[in-house]
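Lab notes, practical 5.
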Amino acid sequence: MSNSAPKVGVIMGSKSDWPVMEHAVAMLERLGVAYETRVVSAHRTPDLLFEYAKSAAERGLQVIVAGAGGAAHLPGMVASQTALPVLGVPVESKALKGLDSLLSIAQMPGGIAVGTLAIGKAGATNAGLLAAQIVGLQDSAVREAVEAFRAEQTQLVLDNPDPRPDVDSSAQ
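Output from the prediction step:
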């Protein structure tokens, strides 16, 4: 995606969040959405967080995907500094298996919205997909890529109706 200006910012509170957040990036790449990614910590680099969020729109971003674990302040703090849509991905924590992260992101006070996704890989994957859908509102190529992806998902189910692993559904 280096040949076009990023439309989605994928940020995380720590480098250790990458194994989850890489799934958001993989979905964006699959759908042809230009993105940027970096570590921006709400607790260790608050000035960087504020600068990143405040400058995001003028840099051409249309949506920010923010992953965080534990106290998970990153998505909410980013949302407090930009009018862009912010999608929060709860990263699984050791202590509470991500429930703490989920609740921290979901329980934003009225007036500061953060779209909250599922904990972990599924949430990151869907955050990438949802970010692409948002970008697709103004980019027909991205919208078409999302529509093709959804059609593929439908066809996979139709082609494999039998859930048993040892049965070839296509031969029936």
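Observations recorded by the TA: The first helix runs from residue 18 to 30. The helical segments are 18-30, 46-55, 74-79, 99-106, 121-136, 140-159.
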